[in-house]
Amino acid sequence: MAASSRAQVLRLYRAMLRESQRFTAYGYRTYAIRRIRDAFRENKHLKDSEEIQTLVNKARTNLEIIHRQVTIGQLYSTQKLVIESLENRDNLII
Amino acid sequence: MDVQATTPLDPRVLDCMLPYLMHYYGNPHSRTHAYGWESESAMERARQQVASLIGADPREIFFTSGATESNNLAIKGVARFYKSRKKHIITTQTEHKCVLDSCRYLETEGFRVTYLPVKSNGLIDLKELENALQPDTSLVSIMTVNNEIGVKQPISDIGQICSSRKVFFHTDAAQAVGKIPMDVNDMKIDLMSISGHKIYGPKGVGAIYVRRRPRVRLEPLQSGGGQERGMRSGTVPTPLAVGLGAACEVSQQEMEYDYKRISVLADRLVTKIMTEIPDVVMNGDPEHHYPGCINLSFAYVEGESLLMALKDVALSSGRFGIGRFTTEEEVDYTVQKCIQHVKRLREMSPLWEMVQDGVDLKSIKWTQH
């Protein structure tokens, strides 16, 4: 199998972010998006194709995990947290 | 913001657990069929994951119902096994209730217990520990990271002292495992308690590490079918064990990232509060401290009033907990509300008024009612 190209990695990155946006739980959603961004950013300089492929495979596994957990979260969703409601957004002066 | 009380399940952990709650429901001790075999192999995989996080051998890890059971097992188990020749135990005054209660119970069985005090920064005095050791001391039990203040005890030094005096060293590492690097060999730890729900794993499961070389023996608490090499009878709850293992593995991978992030958020919280309002004290030694547990005292404000005012933030008694899933927004919101309410409560406080007027509170003669 050919090593993943830059385009493939970017596609995977966008797919992971898109899927993570669908988490209904505030903490999971913010964590997933943050973690994915930081992880891809940390590894963007890598040149060794084997290393890249290992990470890409790990990312694909994580994407599947995110997809399953997003679905479960939607089945058992609850109300929004205080931190998520619009009125409080305006109150954050700092 | 109360992650010291409990943590949410990491989605990666739940994902590992679900198959064992649904399709793979075998008893790991059933030796005769595939349901049992696959359940057993999952349990052993989890055992390896826990061991790997603390630098132990999987044969030294035993699953329990939580850190409370592990603490009970360690303290009562070791004390009772060696009771014919050793009757003394040392612990600290700031241990978790289950440790203190176990020691109190042992006192009724005829053991002597020394409860070491802590210095004003929350750390124990190593010289006092050395002086407290007696020829018939079987065990020293000191927690790694305190769940109220967040101080980190000098575990390696304590381990060194205990090993040189041939006394077993137990540590309740529930708040430390998976958050700071722990190695049972580097730190010369003989027994360790681990809690699932403090490291983004499920509630109802924990583990105890018991050193094999040199061998630590203990009298089991729970009798029965001899599971877990006789250390802890009872069917091991495979889904929970798998959850604990997964939580440990995730923590091992994420430790550095989480620690950096939590330190930044902790600095942000403390700095913002302290620059905005005066007379705030951070409890515990600032250097030997785990950043995810911040304990603040606000002078001239009653604790309960502040907790009740901060009604939409989950807090516990002056303790701010920051974890893997805590966001900057949550920290900012908590800081803003805290500052707002401390100012408001101080306005209502007669003590604050007197201080503002330059009265020295120590010079006041309070009248009796």
From TrEMBL, chain B:
GO cellular component, one term: mitochondrion
Entry annotated with the keyword Iron: yes
Enzyme class: transferase
Gene3D superfamilies per the UniProt record, alphabetical: Aspartate Aminotransferase, domain 1 (3.90.1150.10), Type I PLP-dependent aspartate aminotransferase-like (Major domain) (3.40.640.10)
SUPFAM superfamilies: PLP-dependent transferases
UniProt KW keywords: Iron, Iron-sulfur, Metal-binding, Pyridoxal phosphate, Transferase
Pfam family, one: Aminotran_5
The enzyme's E.C. designation: 2.8.1.7
Names of required cofactors: pyridoxal 5'-phosphate
BP GO annotations: iron-sulfur cluster assembly
GO MF, one example: iron-sulfur cluster binding
InterPro entries in the record: Aminotrans_V_dom, Aminotrans_V_PyrdxlP_BS, Cysteine_dSase, PyrdxlP-dep_Trfase, PyrdxlP-dep_Trfase_major, PyrdxlP-dep_Trfase_small
Residue span, Aminotransferase class V domain: 2-319
PROSITE patterns referenced in this protein's UniProt entry, alphabetically: AA_TRANSFER_CLASS_5
Record flagged with keyword Secreted: no
Domain of life according to the entry: Eukaryota
Family in the record: Belongs to the class-V pyridoxal-phosphate-dependent aminotransferase family. NifS/IscS subfamily.
UniProt name for this protein: cysteine desulfurase
Lineage, highest ranks first: Eukaryota, Metazoa, Chordata, Craniata, Vertebrata
